[in-house]
Amino acid sequence: MKKTKRKLVLVGNGMAGVRAIEHLIKLAPEAYEITIIGAEPHPNYNRIMLSSVLAGGASLKEIVINDWEWYKDNGIRLLAGHRVTQIDANRKRVVSDQGATVDYDELILATGSNPFMLPLPGADKEGVIAFRDIKDCETMVDTSKKYKKAVVIGGGLLGLEAARGLLHLGMDVSVVHINPYLMERQLDETAAKMLQKELEQQGMKFLLRKNSGAILGKKRVRALSFTDGTEAEADLIVMAVGIRPNVELAKSSGIEINRGIVVNDWLETSVERIYAVGECAEHRGIAYGLVAPLYEQGSVLAKKLAGLETTGYAGSVTSTKLKVSGVDVFSAGRYDEPEGSRSLRYQDEVDGVYKKIVIQNDKLIGAVLFGDTNDGAKLFSIIKSGESVVGREKELLLGMAVSGQSASPEARLKEMADEEIICGCNGVSKGTIADAVLAKGCMSVGEIKACTKASGSCGGCKPLVEGLLKLYAGDEAGVGVKEGICGCTPLGRDEIVAEIKRMRLKSIKEVMNVLEWRNSEGCSKCRPSLNYYLGMLFPEEYVDENESRITNERYHANIQKDGTYSVVPRIYGGVTSPAELKKIAEVAEKFDVPMVKFTGGQRLDLLGVKKEDLPKMWEELDMPSGHAYGKTLRTVKTCVGNTFCRFGTQDAIGMGIRLEKAFERLNTPAKVKLAVSGCPRNCAEATIKDFGVVAIDGGWELHVGGNGGVQVRATELLCVVKTEDEVVEWASAYLQYYRENAQWNERTSTWIERVGLEEIKNALEKPEDRLALVERIQKTLSLTTDPWKQIVENDHLRKNFEPLTEALTINS
Ligand SMILES: Cc1cc2nc3c(=O)[nH]c(=O)nc-3n(C[C@H](O)[C@H](O)[C@H](O)COP(=O)(O)OP(=O)(O)OC[C@H]3O[C@@H](n4cnc5c(N)ncnc54)[C@H](O)[C@@H]3O)c2cc1C
Ligand SMILES: NC(=O)c1ccc[n+]([C@@H]2O[C@H](COP(=O)([O-])OP(=O)(O)OC[C@H]3O[C@@H](n4cnc5c(N)ncnc54)[C@H](O)[C@@H]3O)[C@@H](O)[C@H]2O)c1
Ligand code: SF4
Ligand code: FES
C-alpha cells in the first residue's frame, strides 16, 4: 500500500522559507505533500537583488529564484496572492484572506519582516513608501518618470542602496540620516566618512543628524520637515529606517513571541508542530536581517523535517557588503571594538583604502574594509573559525599572504564541508560550485554565476568562487578567471584598450556606450581608468575629464583626515635656496598653515590648508605643483653625489634634477618615484624606487620596479649605461612602456611581478623600439601644463574651490 504523505504547509513564499523547502525536497523528496502560501502575487524571488533591479543591474525576470514551473515540477501547491490570517493549532489548519483553508501536519512560518515606517504626521500621503518588495521597486521606477526629487530616510544598507538606485533613475536624491555618520551599525566613523565622500562624488546628497518631524503636502508629499525647523523638498520619500519581524499572525495564534517568533535550536516555536524560520524568527534573542543566517536556519529545519540527525542551529556571525556599484565596503562581526578588544588600522588616503581588524583574546572578532574588500571573505572565515591570529595580525590587516601556523587560503577552501555556504546572498554551497565546475564544465566566474547565481548579487563571495574555480579546474581556469576592470563591465584592461584603439573611441561616454557598460554612469574604478587610457592613447585629442579623476587629483592637493588639504610645491632634486625657503615660510605664515613638514621625498609639505585658500597660496608661492597627490611623477630623490660627497663618482644632483624636469607632470598609471645615488652606497635609496639610478665607476646602473610602501620590494637591474643622455633615454622608454601596458592604479612593482622583467627588457632592447617609445613620451610631455598655474589664471576653475552653500531651505 502506498504510504500517505504528511502535509507540510509553508506560510511565506520568500527567501528563507522556500530555501528550507528546496533543501527538504532534496533530502526527503517523497516525505511531504507541500503547500506554500504567499501574500505576494509572484513566485519566489531574490529580494536582495531588488537593489540591482533599481540600479539597472538586473531585470525583474532575472531575479526570480523559482519560477512557476518549479512548483509544478516538484508537486508543490502554491497559493500566491493569499495572506494567511488565522492558524487553528488545535485543528491544524490555516485560513487565508482569499477564503482558502489548508490542513497541515507540520507548519512553517516564514513571514519575514515588515519595514518600519516612522509614525510621522503625513506619513500616509501619496509618494511615501518603503523599499521591501517588487511593488515598491515598481513605484520608484514609475515615480522617477514623473518626478525629480527623492528623499530617502535612513543611511543604512537599505537606504543607501535605494538612494543609488534612485540616482540611476535620474532623480535628485538626498539621504536623511539621524546619526552623525552613515551605516553606524556596520562601520566606524572613518570608513563611514570615506563612504560618504565616495557617494557624494556619485551625486548623492546627505543631511546628517536630522530628525524627521512631518511629511508635508496636500494629497502627495511635497517636502519633509525636520525638528530643527528646516525642510527638504521631496516628490518621493522612501523610508529605510530598519525592519521589524512580522509576528502578527503568530501572535494572534497564541505562539510565544518576543521581538520575533521565539524558536529553539531546531526552529521549533512554543506550539507543537509549528516552526519559524527567517527574519520573523528570534533565535537566542536575535532576529537576523540578512540571508546567510536565514539559509543556515533553513538547512537545519530541512534536516529536522526530513528526520535526519542535526545538532541544531547555534546562531551566526554575520558579514555585510554594500551593493553599490563602484563602492567597496565590507563589515563583519564586532567592528565596534568591545571592551577588552584592540584594533589595528590601515589607511591610504590617496587610493581611498581603509582597513580595520578587531582582535580579542587573540582571535579575530571583527573587520571593516573600505576601498579594497578582496580580503573580506578570508577575514570572515577566520572570524568564524575562531582560530588564534597571534603573530599574523599585520598580515591580516595588510592583506598579505597568510603564513605561519594557519592553513593557506587554498587549504582552507579544500577543508570546507560541501554544504558550507560560499555565496550568502544566493545561498550557493561549496558542493554546488564544485558541481558547476566538475560536472557542468563552468570555466569562469561568469559561467559559475550564470549556472549557480553565486557572486551575482553583492559580489562579496567572488574571491572564494575564484579560489574554488582554481581548486577544481586548476590552471585550465586561468583564462576564464579573468574578470572585468570593475562591476560595470566584463572586459579586462587589455580588451578595453584594444577596443578603444581599434574603434578610435574618444570619450568616456562613448567607450561606455559602445562597449555596453552595465552601469551607464560607470563607477569610481572605471571612470578614472578610462580617463587615463584615453589620455595615454590620444594625448593630442583627448580632453581630460576632471570629474572622472580621484578627489586629490581634482583639487591638486592631498585631502587630509580633517578635510583640509596639503600643499607641496616642486623642489627639483630636493635642492632649494634661501630665497625659495623664505617665500615658502612667508606663505605658510600668511595663511596660518598649522604645520610645515619635510617629506620623505625631500620637499616641504604645508599641511592643514583650507580648500578655499589653495588657489591664493599657489598664486603667492608661484612655484610648480609638486604633484604630491596624483598618479604622476612624484619626486626624484637625490644624494649630494660628487658635488660634495667624497665617495661620489657622478653628479647625482644634476642627474636627478634633469630627470625631474624631464618627467614632471607626466600622467602615469600609478604614482612613480625616482631616485639617483652618486655611488653604490646608495644613500638616496634608489633600489626601492620605481626607477632608481645608481652611479658606478664610468656609468650608471638603472634599476626598476622597487617599492618602499606596504609591500617592500627591491628593484631589479634593467641595464647599465654610460652617459646621462642614455639614462634619460632609458628612463623615457621604460616609463612610456609602463604607461602603455600597465593597468590603471598598478604600481611598477606589481606590474613587473605580473609581466616579468624579461618582457620589459625585450621591449626596450632594440634602439629603434626605445626611440619610438621616447618619441611618444615626448609628445605627451610637450602637451602638459602646470595645473596650479592653470587654476590660478582661470576664474572659472578657481570657483571650484569656493565653499559650498547650504543645500537646505529654512522653514520660516
Ligand atoms: C532591497 C533589499 C536588499 C537586500 N539586500 C540584502 C543583501 O545584500 N544581503 C543580505 O543578506 N540581505 C539583504 N536583504 C535582506 C533579505 O532580503 C532578507 O533578509 C530576506 O529576504 C528575508 O527572507 P525571509 O524569507 O525571512 O523574508 P521575505 O523574503 O520577506 O519573505 C517573507 C514572505 O512572506 C510573505 N508573508 C508575510 N506574511 C504572510 C502571511 N500572513 N501569509 C502569506 N504570506 C506572508 C511576505 O509577503 C513575503 O513574501 C535585502 C532586503 C531588501 C529589501
Ligand atoms: N547589502 C546588504 O546586505 C543589505 C542591503 C539592504 C538591506 N539589507 C537588510 O535589510 C534590512 C533593512 O535595512 P535598513 O538599512 O533599513 O536597516 P538598518 O536597521 O540596518 O538601518 C537603518 C538605518 O536607519 C537609521 N535611522 C533610524 N531611524 C532614523 C530616522 N528617524 N531618520 C533617519 N535615519 C534613521 C539608523 O540609524 C540606521 O542606520 C536590514 O536587516 C539590512 O541588513 C541588507
Ligand atoms: S650615495 Fe655615495 S655619493 Fe651619494 S651621498 Fe652616499 S656615499 Fe655619497
Ligand atoms: S555573497 Fe553576495 S553575491 Fe555571493
From TrEMBL:
Q: In which pathway does it act?
A: Nitrogen metabolism; nitrate reduction (assimilation)
PROSITE patterns listed in its UniProt record:
NIR_SIR (PS00365)
Q: Which InterPro entries match?
A: BFD-like_2Fe2S-bd_dom, BFD-like_2Fe2S-bd_dom_sf, FAD/NAD-bd_sf, FAD/NAD-binding_dom, FAD/NAD-linked_Rdtase_dimer_sf, NasD-like, NiRdtase/SiRdtase_haem-b_fer, Nit/Sulf_reduc_fer-like_dom_sf
Q: Which GO terms describe its biological process?
A: nitrate assimilation
- Tell me the cofactors it needs: [4Fe-4S] cluster; FAD; siroheme; [2Fe-2S] cluster
- Which residues are in the NADH-rubredoxin oxidoreductase C-terminal domain? 319-386
The entry's siroheme-binding residues are C683
Extract the Pfam families matched here.
Fer2_BFD (PF04324), NIR_SIR (PF01077), NIR_SIR_ferr (PF03460), Pyr_redox_2 (PF07992), Rubredoxin_C (PF18267)
Q: List each copy of the BFD-like [2Fe-2S]-binding domain by range.
A: 421-470, 485-534
Q: Which GO terms describe its molecular function?
A: 2 iron, 2 sulfur cluster binding; 4 iron, 4 sulfur cluster binding; flavin adenine dinucleotide binding; heme binding; metal ion binding; NADP binding; nitrite reductase activity
Where along the chain is [4Fe-4S] cluster bound?
Answer: C639, C645, C679, C683
Please list the residue ranges annotated as the Nitrite/Sulfite reductase ferredoxin-like domain.
560-622
Keyword list (alphabetical) reads: 2Fe-2S, 4Fe-4S, FAD, Flavoprotein, Heme, Iron, Iron-sulfur, Metal-binding, Nitrate assimilation, Oxidoreductase
Which residues, if any, are the signal sequence? none
What is the UniProt remark on how the cofactor binds and its stoichiometry?
Answer: Binds 1 [4Fe-4S] cluster per subunit.
| Domain Nitrite/sulphite reductase 4Fe-4S intervals | 630-767
What are the FAD/NAD(P)-binding domain coordinates in residue numbering?
Answer: 7-283
Its domain of life reads Bacteria
Cross-referenced SUPFAM superfamilies: FAD/NAD(P)-binding domain (SSF51905), Nitrite and sulphite reductase 4Fe-4S domain-like (SSF56014), Nitrite/Sulfite reductase N-terminal domain-like (SSF55124)
Q: Which family, according to UniProt?
A: Belongs to the nitrite and sulfite reductase 4Fe-4S domain family.
Output this protein's name. Nitrite reductase (NADH) large subunit
